[in-house]
Structure formats: structure tokens, C-alpha cells
Amino acid sequence: MFSKITEQSSLHDDLDKKSVEELLIEMNEEDQKVPLAVKAAIPQITKLVEAIVPRMKKGGRIFYLGAGTSGRLGVLDASEIPPTFGMPPTFVVGLIAGGDTALRNPVEKAEDDPEKSWKELQDRGINKLDTVIGIAASGTTPYVVGALRHARENGILTASISMNPDAPVSKEADIPIEAIVGPEFVTGSTRLKSGTAQKLICNMITTTTMIKMGRVQGNKMVNMQLSNQKLVDRGTRMIVEELGLEYEQAKHLLLLHGSVKKAVDAYREER
Fold first, then answer.
1. Could you give the strand order of the β-sheet that contains 131-135, starting from the edge strand earlier in sequence?
2. Residue 67 pLDDT level (bands cut at 50, 70, 90)
3. Is 29 labeled as catalytic in the residue annotation?
4. Catalytic residue among 7, 26, 111, 269
């Protein structure tokens, strides 16, 4: 019988009788277990990214699917790709059970339909260059399991992110990623350690993919969108550092060409 570590009783009891400082110290002690659990999953994360990059270079996309906290984290990671790396929003897509309404409010029973997610993927023209990543702390969410099963049956690369060993989602994925963070501080509250681990893993997947896609130069976000003054200033300083120009000249170049990379390339072509 499948046993959920994520549902096991917290290692900390009598929380309601402890001081604020005691609670924070004990939560922090639990949180320190997360990076080590993620570290143990790096071989599988490596395998996934190495499979995604050649697909994405041919036009493939990443689809995150999840419910509740897991779904929100997938949508969050996807939404950060355009401003950070200057990629179109169609390249990394986050789908959450219950749709956008579920980002702020729970949608009753949305996660219990194993067919809904595949229909949503079909509506977006899912194909064999794409990758479907199911996120489920418990590893049992029907919305996620159904998507992975259908995608795999149709020859689409699948991966899962869960916090229980040998979870049902792992069995439906070509590349299962399991970060075993242990019981939650508040029993069963997977928005805590499980959610933190999921965020770290999503960060790792998309950041390394974007680097390998050429969206980072050195250690800098040379393709970021110039959506506010802070980012314009950051981009200007990158150009100053790279080309040795005065600040105002660098800013003019940046605004003229729209990104650090385009500005630097254009300047060098003119020299």
C-alpha cells in the first residue's frame, strides 16, 4: 500500500503551546532539510534538463501541471520566464486545476478530474517536441496523473515532481523527480517544506534550460525585459561594465535596441 510521508504526523507537537520564537526556530530547523532533499534529486533534474533543451531548440515547450500550491508554483515559475529571460510566454506554460480562478481561490474538486488536464493540453496543441511536468506533493493528484498518462501514451516527454517515494505520478513519468523532505511542520501542510522544494526544483529546471538556450551571458540576464526603471538601470550598468561606456551612452543604446544582448552586439558590429 502506498504510504504518504507528506501526511505523516509532524515531528513537532504542542505547537499551540509554544512561543513565537520557538515556533520559528523549529520551522527553520525543518526548512534546512529541504536543500539536502533537493540535492539528492539532482541526477534526475539533470536528466530532465538535458532532454528538454534539444526539444526546446526545435520549438518545444514546457508545460507545468498541478493543483493547489503545486499548481500555483508552476504558474509562478512560468510567469517569470518572459521578464527574466526575454522568452515569449508560450515557451513555458503553467496550468492549474480549476484555471486562473484557482490561483487565488480554491476550486472544489477541480483536481479530481484526470481527463481535464489532457483536454487543456490538447487545446494548446501539445506535440512530441513538448515536455509535460506534473507537480504534486502527495504524488496522487488525478489532474496530474491523468495528464502524464495521456502525454506518455502519445510519445510526449513526461516528468514529475513529488515528495513521496514511489508515488503514482512517478510511475506515469519518464523522469520522476522525488525530493523526500519528510513530514511537514504542521501535519499535512505541504505548502511548507514540500512547496519550498518544488519552487527550488522549478527554479533549477527553467534557469538551467534558459542558460543552455543562450539566454544568459556570463552570469547576467542579458535578455531580460526592460519593464521598469530598476531593470533599465540594471541593464545599463551591464552595458557599462561590458563595453566601458559612459552611463548615459549605455542607457541610450539599451533603450534603442531593447535588450542588453542586442545593444552589445549592435555596438560591436559598428566598431
1. 92-96, 62-66, 131-135, 157-162, 175-178
2. very high
3. no
4. 111
Are 136 and 6 within 8 A, CB to CB?
no
C-alpha to C-alpha distance for 166 and 147, rounded to whole angstroms: 18
The number of residues making up the chain comes to 271
In the set 21, 26, 80, 120, the catalytic residue is 80
Q: Where does residue 100 fall: left (phi above 0), alpha (psi -120 to 50 degrees), or beta otherwise?
A: alpha
Q: Shortest CA distance to 128 belongs to which of 146, 145, 153, 95? A: 153
Contacts of 256-261 spanning 24+ positions with Cβ under 8 A: 258/226, 259/86, 259/222, 259/223, 259/224, 259/226, 259/235, 260/217, 260/220, 260/221, 260/222, 260/223, 260/224, 260/235, 261/217, 261/222, 261/223
Q: Is 80 a catalytic residue?
A: yes
Are 62 and 206 within 8 A, CB to CB? Answer: yes
Beta bridge partners of 217: 220
> What is the distance between the alpha carbons of residues 242 and 223, in angstroms, rounded to a whole number?
14
> Is pLDDT above 80 for 1?
no
**Closest among 224, 228, 214, 227 to 238, alpha carbons compared:** 224
**DSSP category for residue 10:** P
Average pLDDT of the chain is 96
CA distances from 14 to 5, 17, 18, 190, 201 (A): 20, 5, 7, 19, 32
Q: What is the pLDDT of residues 115-155, one digit of tens each?
A: 999 999 999 999 999 999 999 999 999 999 999 999 999 99
